[in-house]
């Protein structure tokens, strides 16, 4: 990116939304490792993004598998 061009998007928001789309399209729960490989990001980065989505109730974590799926809040947005 050149010095005189300003970024017009928020990269972390974009990545978070991409994670939501990936989980929705997978039609199954996904883990941190799978998401890390899919996006080419470090597990720590994916973990923080996913933790934010869980905190905001857009994803839920299966305590048995430690994988994530969409929560009902996502569906509420369609109302």
Short description:
The protein is mainly alpha-helical. It has helices spanning 11-26, 32-39, 43-55, 72-76, and strands spanning 59-61, 68-70.
Walk me through this protein's architecture.
The protein is mainly α and 79 residues long. Helices cover 53% and strands 8% of the residues. It has four helices and two strands; from the N terminus they run αααββα. It has helices at 11-26, 32-39, 43-55, 72-76; strands at residues 59-61, 68-70. Strands 1-2 form a two-stranded antiparallel ribbon. α2 crosses α3. The longest helix is centred in the N-terminal third of the chain and has 16 residues, at 11-26. The radius of gyration is 14 Å and the shape is globular.
Helical fraction: 40-55%
Tell me the strand order in the biggest sheet: 1-2
Alpha carbon gap, first and last residue: 38 Å
Q: Give the topology string: H per helix, E per strand.
A: HHHEEH
């Amino acid at each position: 990116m050149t010095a005189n061009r300003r970024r017009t998007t928020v990269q972390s928001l974009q990545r978070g939304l991409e994670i939501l789309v990936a989980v929705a399209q997978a039609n199954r729960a996904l883990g941190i490792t799978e998401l890390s490989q899919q996006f080419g990001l470090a597990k720590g980065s994916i973990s923080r993004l996913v933790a934010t989505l869980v905190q905001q109730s857009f994803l839920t974590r299966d305590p048995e598998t430690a994988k994530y799926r969409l929560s009902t809040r996502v569906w509420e947005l369609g109302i």
